[in-house]
Structures are given as C-alpha cells and as structure tokens.
Amino acid sequence: MNEFSLIRHYFATQTTQRSDVTLGIGDDGAIIDIPSGYQLVITTDTLVAGVHFPVNTQPTDIGHKALAVNLSDLAAMGATPAWVTLALTMPSADRLWIGHFCTGLFRLADAHQVALIGGDLTRGPLSITIQAMGLIPTNQALKRSGAKPGDLIYVTGTLGDAGYALNHLNKSIDVSLIERLNKPAPRVEIGKKLRRIATAAIDISDGLCADLSHILAASQVGARVNVDLLPLSKELLKATDRASALSLALGAGDDYELCFTVSADQQENLARLLTNTDCNHSYIGTITAEPGLVLHYDNHSLFQGAIHGYQHF
Ligand code: ADP
Ligand code: MG
Fold first, then answer.
1. What is the residue with the minimal CA distance to atom 4 of ligand 1?
2. What is the per-residue pLDDT for 253?
C-alpha cells in the first residue's frame, strides 16, 4: 500500500463529519469555518515511543493517548475541541498496527465530535504529533495567569495512579491503574464548565507540584497545599503505602487531571456547576500573596516526604 491508499483506507474513514469543515483530508490544506464570536485555541503535543509511552504499548492505546493529551490541553483552556491534524512517523507501514491505532484515535475523537482534517506520514522511529484546535467564546479562555491571593485550589479526579503504573510496567497490578496511564480521560466537560468561574487552570501532565508552580509563576502568587486533601484512588492506596502514594500524587506525571483556582466566594457556585459531571473535584489548598509552594499536613506541620519527580531535560 502506498502513502495515499493508506490515507484513504485508514485516516480518511472517520465516522464524525463536521459541517464546519469546508475541505478536509485530500488537498494541500484543510479549510474550516470559525463561527463569529469565537476564538480558535490551538495546541500540539508529540508522543515519542520509549519516551512518552513504553515501546510495547498497544496501538489502540497509543492512538487514544496521542489525542487525549492534546484534548487535555484544550480542556485546560476551557475550549471545545473541534479539529485535529496528525503527523505520524512510523518505521514501516504495518497495516494491522495502523488499523488499531486509528481505532483508538477515532473512538476518542468521535466521542468528542472531533474531526481529523489532515496530517502527514513519514518513515522513521515511531513518533506521533497531533495538533488540536478548539473553540472558545471570545475572551473566555482559561489561562494560567489569573490566580489571586485567597483563591481556592482544586484538582479533578485522583492523582498518582498513572505514575504508579509507569513505575510498575510489566508487573501484575490493578488494571484500573494501567488504564489511567494508557487511556487518560481528558476533562473536556469540566474545562468548559470552568469558563465562567475559574481564575486560572492548567492540566497536570508533569505532576501537581510542577504544574501548579506554572500557575503560581504566571499569576505571580504562591500557594499552600494540604497534602492530606490530595485525592488518592482506593486502587493506588491498595497498591502502595500512603507516603509513596502522596509522593506520586505530588510529583509523578501523566495524570491529565485539571488543576484550577476559584475565588473563595464562588465555592458554592462551583459545586453547583460541577454536579452531574463525569468526574469529581477536590479542594486541596489556597493561593497566597507570598510566593512559593508550601506543602503541609492537616495539622499544619510541613510536608516531610519525598516528591517523585520526572524531568525531560
Ligand atoms: P502534501 O504532499 O501536499 O503535504 P500529503 O501527500 O502529505 O500532502 O497528504 C495528502 C493529504 O492527506 C493531505 O490533505 C494531508 O493533510 C492528508 N494526510 C496525510 N497524512 C495524513 C494522516 N496521517 N492523517 C490524516 N490526513 C493525512
Ligand atoms: Mg502539498
């Protein structure tokens, strides 16, 4: 199969079709219509085999995760995902692999009515780059820069599960932990609801401490986080001791949960907005005027444990 029949047979077979795609796959570029009153939010993320996922990861999971990490960035902006492009580098044109990859990719894309509108295919070590585009009503995007002293800090879901799975590859551990690593659920629904209320937001890809620190730097504030309030899954607490679970929740990456801030007088409003969403949210601390991130326990003594960390460079 040549490049063009691969595109026709696999990448141009998505169920979701959007009426705002004037020209999709097949020309030199795609053409999309942006409705008036909206801004385009654009993000891109690359997954490299052996760096961002273990080489033996199932192709359906790779397809899912490559899209999920991008939708997670759009969720953190409060955007509604709409279109993606895919630049795929593969060592060979393995049709079985491509078929499964597309199954994982399109299952998630269809669930969010996201259309694949173009891309590129090249030969080389396995690497997947997706560019995702979404819509936000003008001036409503969530940024990292709006947190104010006194704001309350929240996270969605539970933290540390994916980090635990990454540390226990090829071991027999709870499948729900492995799923958290391989099939993260982008918090698109919550991100959209936060438009009207969050003062700052970020998605947790590099660990809570690292990503919350980005909010603090961009907003020129500090924070106090009570580690006893961090949401830990029962599966994680069954798999490891509480100290290790906390260390993973604070430092390990790949959670793809949202961390966001809300002004203190909006607490009840937030609870109301987020009832009946697909995921819970937990209050974990408060923004301070004093710079720096202070981690403490319920009894106010300073956190003494290790923080599991990972840095690319
Ligand atoms: P060009 O040579 O003009 O860059 P290509 O031959 O690379 O175009 O691609 C032909 C068409 O197929 C383009 O519309 C391109 O966006 C699309 N395409 C290529 N690779 C992919 C892919 N992996 N997924 C989706 N669309 C793709
Ligand atoms: Mg061209």
1. 28
2. 87
Residue nearest to atom 16 of ligand 1 (CA): 118
Distance, in Å, from the CA atom of 115 to the CA atom of 82, rounded to the nearest integer, reads 6
Tokens representing 217? 């730097």
pLDDT in tens, 176-229: 999 999 999 999 999 999 998 999 999 999 999 999 999 999 999 999 999 999
Amino acid at 140: Q
CA separation for the pair 17, 14 (Å, rounded)? 7
Answer yes or no: are the C-beta atoms of 225 and 305 closer than 8 Å.
no
CA of 23 to the centre of ligand 2 (A): 14
Question: Atom 9 (ligand 1): residue with closest C-alpha?
Answer: 120
**pLDDT tens for each residue of 118-169:** 999 999 999 999 999 999 999 999 999 999 999 999 999 999 999 999 999 9
pLDDT at 305: 85
What is the DSSP secondary-structure string of 138-181? TT----SS---TT-EEEEES-SSHHHHHHHTTTS---HHHHHHH
The DSSP letter of residue 229 is: G
In angstroms, rounded to a whole number, what is the distance separating the alpha carbons of residues 90 and 126?
4
Pocket of ligand 1 (CB under 6 A): 7, 11, 25-28, 86, 88, 116, 118-121
Q: How confident is the model at residue 278 (pLDDT cuts 50, 70, 90)?
A: confident
Phi, psi of 88, rounded to the nearest 5 degrees: -115, 125
Cα of 116 to ligand 1 centre, how many Å?
11
Q: Give the contacts of 153 (CB within 8 A, at least 6 positions apart).
A: 212, 223, 225, 259, 260, 261, 283, 284, 285, 286, 287
Q: How many angstroms separate the CA atoms of 163 and 236, rounded?
A: 10
**Quick one: which atom of ligand 1 is closest to the CA of 116?**
25
> Which structure tokens are listed for 270?
């937030």
Tell me how far apart the alpha carbons of residues 206 and 204 are, in angstroms, rounded to a whole number. Answer: 6
Q: How far apart are CA 7 and CA 93, in angstroms?
A: 11
d(C-alpha 90, C-alpha 16), whole Å = 25
